[in-house]
């Protein structure tokens, strides 16, 4: 309905004018930088190809989805997921193209587990015969599967799972049974309403040889189980399964609970590539190489590390564009009648956003490196060489913990830096934030898994201390041995470093701090025999220090070996490197100081140095975020639009797209009527549920 | 529908057993402590009185509300708010009792602004005649009002508001007009769908004397304006008003946008207690004492500070009870077959939750103190004595910034400490978290308002430096003068302190650090004439240091003067004091060190000292959170239930209360059908909006 507001414009200078100015003032080429960042694996080209197809489908419109109820939103998510799969068939998308489409639509797919853990587990843990039977059904989506490991009472400690798979040697079947409520499967994605099959992880109980009524547990094993009828789609008898209900995010995912009541499955249900039960004797065959189970967990963690850069880049894109446009207060020392300042020109806004801009780049290089180390290690393992596995497992654990923390906290920091409008739905961060808040917990809790890094480093330090003069087996060993030799000779580790001007010295400083913390942990655990649990806080700090060292070192090495970039691009990347590293150092200043990894005078200079770096990066901020090439469709943000039409879009969402404005309410408290002219009352709303 | 899961129990030891053990092992009396904390102003008694009335009403059941859409949830919120008002009439509740009922129901009321800023502004800024007319209408809720100040383009900088109120000397009316889109009112609560009146803040434009066609602005002024028809409840002609759409939280609040097209309001609309326009001459009368406008802003900030303790206590209650019950992994150094450990026994869980438990108590004392300082200052001001106003304004700004940050971040820290189940709707933190995330921004952005603290302290330091030997005007002046005298005599400030054993020395350390930062800011701004904006980060740190000093000092003084408590209660409160202060110090270690506020050796000892304090507090954790007496109805949390039936309740919510489980879906991607046996498709869901 047209009204007088249709012709109004925002106050000048408006967003488009401001962003045009921002883009013109920087010599950073968005084209060059975006290709450098995103085209090596075809990401950019893929995005350009898939985006118009997605935007063409009305079902993928995000305009009003925030207004839906959980059941409606889930239905929409399922409808979209079906359409995505049909588009895959129609356009003959490969896996990467399909994933790109999912990334742009930005709904967690109810089929997610089918495509990831379900298929991966069959591929890796099923026997050849099992694979031959199941893979065609899975790939054609004739069956939909999930992965049911976590239980109501047990997550990280997989050995504590309570669900039982008891071998019945009479009928040659396994009997799945949930002895307690806490044995209920819980959190298992795609299983709550959708999947008709699942990998079910249960304690394998076999009769003791010679004592057929006594059973012994051989630990958790995976079974493939049909859980719903293929026609009615109702749970099979003996199974209770459903969706666990609303969560912070993942609104389109049906995380499940599932219990079994003496539910019988055939011998062939047990995935038997590595371990098996002889159907005639009931005798168990153990897997030869237990380390193999590392594989999929580490893969998922590496994926999460690689993904973090785009999450943070998305939040930073919105925050930089909006705070460049948003104006507030005149300069206190300037003319009273002057224009208001862009809020991004306030150092108190810069200190929240620009280090995160730098962090997105740090995450980028480490994400790439993590992926290639994963691929190398996988090749080694397939050749039967397991030496690099422990390193990769440690690295992926520490980085998963640190990088998801940086990205999750970074999204919220960006949101708050945007002030009032950051709290609104037009910011574009609500769903991202709600979904991403799962990441600090899933695939290994961020505090729990840092123990794996510390245990690895203590082992490495023990080896180095036992043989400081031997030949180093790898880079960590070499650093640790040198540290031990320096201690022995009372030679100071802190060779004069100049962190304020020498980029390589910054890496050395991070290296020394991580090494000192590793040595302290080694001393306390190995020499002083302190209990593991009493050291946990310290071990967490060690993991963080080591992972920060990796981020800084990887960033430094990538820039040092880069040869193809223009000077302007390279020089701004070096500034981002410095900002990331020195901002990180400032925040943990005392720890660096205590480890002799920074001098007192350098530490005192850090705040000024960080502020100077921010003022150098500031003019390029908009071009730097543009280089991540995150499309408006994905951002779904008034504040972060590429064209800068912030206020027009906020107004449009409020005035034209908000269903609440279709309803006229009755504010009189003495009348039951809620909606003017209708019988709608409070009781009638509740009764709908 | 009954099924085999009805009879299942969780694995042993279950939650009730564990909590009974936790409660028995501590000598802290919940009864004593809760009365000490919450009965002085009748809070506890009020809660006990109101709770059963609320729980008796089906409309206030929270069981399924997370599943509603925004429009449905808003309708429910309005229905509840009406019922609350009717219960107020029925039970003749006073204001505090009504607020208690609202607190327990835990919906932001769509009438909130009517009861707060609308009525307050009329009370404080309307002339006597205006009050006589409006107050009866307001108090009887015959009209519902809102407060429309913030605009799409302007928040904190009130002087930058664009909406115009132009005096028409012909018709003796004001003409309200929005010249741009950014002039649209925005965020104004209770106005989007509900209010029929509003205080509208607009630039007062009056003709220049002798030049009737030229107008001059006299700055923003408040007007009372009818915006909707009292019968049809539709906007009046010349006004466009509506709800801005979904947000992070505040789902039951109709935050508004509103624009005016040459909308005429009578001369009597301008609230004229302090300033007025002569209807005959068009001549403006200025307010005598502009400081008076501080009043309501400071009141709201003081309220927010006081409220923060209960927000954090709620999250900590849930986190402590759940992590005491949740078990994970055996002790790495213990028996392999031993029981799993309660996760609250891991120092890495303690370090996240127990300092926040201590923080809730710190917030309590400062909240009480803030409230009584506000009341004293108000009495002073009403007597015409404005001297304490600047101090109170500075204190309320700094504390609002720090305390809302502690509570908002604390809620999320508690959530993450609860691992996987913390991400679920049964945690009970989703709505609290979403609503509270507004607090770091509203009523003065947390980074912006710290300038007000710094400006105040620089002024105080300047005065002290100019007259270090004069008589001190207040406590801050006395501390600052002493600091200047010590500097002059090169006497060291850091008299030997022993933070690890002397509680008073801890306060001294926080005092010195804040004073050194104030002195540095004074030097840079007053002597070195550095620009204000270049100092902003440093000024923010100063405000934080000063506010932390207030929290620590107030905690210390409250315990030092407390005489009625038992030894066991007092001794645990002292441990909480130490934990709060030393944990805070450890996190900002280098700043304390740089300010000579802590010795290097004390700083090195802090981590061990903090860990020791946590192990002393740990056995009392459950009784300490019990003492906040937050009812299960308010917690609305499976994880935080007083009876410890965590798993039973999680399962009940999932299996019996989740409407998604009423729907059977069709997972076949080649079929459009979403819901099995119905015509529901993706397009039909979108078309509902």
From TrEMBL, chains A, B:
PANTHER family: ELECTRON TRANSPORT OXIDOREDUCTASE, PEROXISOMAL ACYL-COENZYME A OXIDASE 1. FAD binds at residues 150, 189. GO terms for biological process: fatty acid beta-oxidation using acyl-CoA oxidase; lipid homeostasis. This is Acyl-coenzyme A oxidase. Pathway: Lipid metabolism; peroxisomal fatty acid beta-oxidation. One of its GO terms (cellular component) is peroxisome. Its cofactor is FAD. Belongs to the acyl-CoA oxidase family. Residues 505-672 form the Acyl-CoA oxidase C-terminal domain. Keywords: FAD, Fatty acid metabolism, Flavoprotein, Lipid metabolism, Oxidoreductase, Peroxisome. It is found in: Peroxisome. It comes from Penicillium steckii. Pfam families: ACOX (PF01756), ACOX_C_alpha1 (PF22924), Acyl-CoA_ox_N (PF14749). Residues 294-458 form the Acyl-CoA oxidase C-alpha1 domain. It catalyses: a 2,3-saturated acyl-CoA + O2 = a (2E)-enoyl-CoA + H2O2. One of its GO terms (molecular function) is fatty acid binding. The active site is at residue 443. Residues 1-24 are annotated as: Disordered. Residues 30-144 form the Acyl-coenzyme A oxidase N-terminal domain. InterPro entries: ACOX_C_alpha1, Acyl-CoA_ox_N, Acyl-CoA_Oxase/DH_mid-dom_sf, Acyl-CoA_oxidase, Acyl-CoA_oxidase_C, AcylCo_DH-like_C, AcylCoA_DH/ox_N_sf, AcylCoA_DH/oxidase_NM_dom_sf.
């Amino acid at each position: 309905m047209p009204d007088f507001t249709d012709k109004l414009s925002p106050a000048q200078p408006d967003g488009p004018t401001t962003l045009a100015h921002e883009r013109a003032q920087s010599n950073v080429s968005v084209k060059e930088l975006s290709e450098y960042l995103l085209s090596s694996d075809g990401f950019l080209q893929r995005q350009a190809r898939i985006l118009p197809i997605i935007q063409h489908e009305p079902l993928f419109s995000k305009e009003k989805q925030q207004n839906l109820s959980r059941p409606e939103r889930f239905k929409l998510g399922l409808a979209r997921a079906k359409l995505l799969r049909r588009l895959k068939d129609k356009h003959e998308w490969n896996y990467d193209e399909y994933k790109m489409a999912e990334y742009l639509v930005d709904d967690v797919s109810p089929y997610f587990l089918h495509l990831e853990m379900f298929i991966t587990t069959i591929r890796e843990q099923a026997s050849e015969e099992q694979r031959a039977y199941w893979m065609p059904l899975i790939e054609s989506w004739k069956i939909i599967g999930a992965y049911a490991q976590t239980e109501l009472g047990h997550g990280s400690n997989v050995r504590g799972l309570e669900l039982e798979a008891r071998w019945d040697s009479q009928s040659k079947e396994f009997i799945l049974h949930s002895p307690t409520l806490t044995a209920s499967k819980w959190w298992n994605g795609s299983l709550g309403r959708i999947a008709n099959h699942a990998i079910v992880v249960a304690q394998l109980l076999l009769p003791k040889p010679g004592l057929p009524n006594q059973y012994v547990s051989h630990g958790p094993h995976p079974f493939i189980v049909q859980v719903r009828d293929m026609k009615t789609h109702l749970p099979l008898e003996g199974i209770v399964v459903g969706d666990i209900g609303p969560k912070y995010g993942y609104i389109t995912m049906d995380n499940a609970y599932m219990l079994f009541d003496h539910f019988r499955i055939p011998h062939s249900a047990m995935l038997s590539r590595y371990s098996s039960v002889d159907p005639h004797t009931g005798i168990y065959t153990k897997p030869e190489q237990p380390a193999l189970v590392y594989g999929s967990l580490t893969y998922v963690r590496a994926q999460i590390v690689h993904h973090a850069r785009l999450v943070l880049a998305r939040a930073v894109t919105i925050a930089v564009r909006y705070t460049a446009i948003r104006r507030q207060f005149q300069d206190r020392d300037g003319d009273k009648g002057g224009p208001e300042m862009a809020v991004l020109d306030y150092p108190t806004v810069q200190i929240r956003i620009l280090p995160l801009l730098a962090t997105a780049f740090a995450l980028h290089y480490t994400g790439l490196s993590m992926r290639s180390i994963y691929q190398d290690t996988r090749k080694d393992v397939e050749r039967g060489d397991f030496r690099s596995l422990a390193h990769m497992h440690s690295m992926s654990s520490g980085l998963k913990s640190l990088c998801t923390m940086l990205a999750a906290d970074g999204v919220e920091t960006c949101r708050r830096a945007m002030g009032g409008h950051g709290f609104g739905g037009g910011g574009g961060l609500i769903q991202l934030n709600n979904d991403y808040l799962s990441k600090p917990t899933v695939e290994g809790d961020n505090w729990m898994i840092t123990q794996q890094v510390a245990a690895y480093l203590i082992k490495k330090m023990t080896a180095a201390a036992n043989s400081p003069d031997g030949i180093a087996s790898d880079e960590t060993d070499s650093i640790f041995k040198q540290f031990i030799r320096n201690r022995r000779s009372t030679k100071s580790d802190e060779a004069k470093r100049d962190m304020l001007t020498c980029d390589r010295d910054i890496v050395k400083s991070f290296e020394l701090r991580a090494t000192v913390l590793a040595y302290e942990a080694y001393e306390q655990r190995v020499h002083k025999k302190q209990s593991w649990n009493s050291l946990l806080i310290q071990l967490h700090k060690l993991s963080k220090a080591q992972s920060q060292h990796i981020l800084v070192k990887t960033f430094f090495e990538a820039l040092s070996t880069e040869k193809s970039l223009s000077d302007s691009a390279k020089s701004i990347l070096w500034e981002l490197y410095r900002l990331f590293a020195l901002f990180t150092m400032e925040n943990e200043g005392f720890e660096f100081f205590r480890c002799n990894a920074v001098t007192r005078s350098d530490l005192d200079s850090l705040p000024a140095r960080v502020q100077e770096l921010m003022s150098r990066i500031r003019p390029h901020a908009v071009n730097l975020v543009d280089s991540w090439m995150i499309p408006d469709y994905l951002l779904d943000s008034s504040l972060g639009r590429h064209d800068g039409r912030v206020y027009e879009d906020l107004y449009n969402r409020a005035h034209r797209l908000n269903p609440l404005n279709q309803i006229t309410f009755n504010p009189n408290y003495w009348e039951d009527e809620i909606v003017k002219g209708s019988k709608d009352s409070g009781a009638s709303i509740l009764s709908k549920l």
